[in-house]
């Protein structure tokens, strides 16, 4: 097994995950992008000695992609299990990243796995398979980003235990930057202070604000020697918006703070 990834706990999420796992309850991780959801699932899979299978959902992701399909190989037709079927059979953790992006038939496919039945119906084979006792379903969802666009239906949400991910506090976020990159604590503190400042500037109307991921990226650039102001501009400011006025205002602000 590979090395356990670094993950800094920011609340009771490890306990919640472990209890959900032990009770075989599906878990929904809610929160903005770059707040550590994917890293957390990876970390927990290691902690629980489980195999993790991740599917990054997009608008094309269908139940066939998850369940499986027939492939024609020469004169033969072969059935290939999809990631969901593999996880259900082998007792892995299946992580559906950005579940609301997927096609509606994906939600239908997981229904019977998210209630007491704990089974998967493979329509193309006419088979129903019982989930392995160690199987767990985890999904992530970004409520802010999907507002009014791709919501998760209440009837779907209520099938999950749900955990909210928020940005870490100052000290925890500095720890994350120092652990993830080669950066010194003083510079990490400056980056995190910049992030906190921008996150509070709600009047800018940014769709997404500075995530821990952006900070890690900027810190990496600084760590390998890119000048700090340039690293902050390309690592933090530019990815946030295309509005020239906002870019100028944020760049000026960051230049003063780094
Ligand atoms: P999400 O899945 O929420 O979009 P990720 O898990 O991909 O976010 O996190 C993005 C990056 O931010 C990670 O690769 C990691 O470097 C860093 N990160 C964020 N939160 C944490 C945390 N609590 N512990 C360790 N690293 C973190």
Automatic annotation (TrEMBL):
Q: Which residues form the signal peptide?
A: none
The residues covered by the CbbQ/NirQ/NorQ C-terminal domain are: 173-256
InterPro entries membership:
ATPase_dyneun-rel_AAA, CbbQ/NirQ/NorQ/GpvN, CbbQ_C, P-loop_NTPase
Which keywords does this chain's UniProt record carry?
Answer: ATP-binding, Nucleotide-binding
Query: Which terms does the record give in the GO molecular function aspect?
Result: ATP binding; ATP hydrolysis activity
Q: Which residues form a coiled coil?
A: none
Q: Which domain of life is it from?
A: Bacteria
Annotated Gene3D superfamilies: P-loop containing nucleotide triphosphate hydrolases
All copies of the ATPase dynein-related AAA domain together span: 26-160
Its recorded name reads ATPase AAA
Look up and give the organism this protein is from.
Mangrovimonas yunxiaonensis
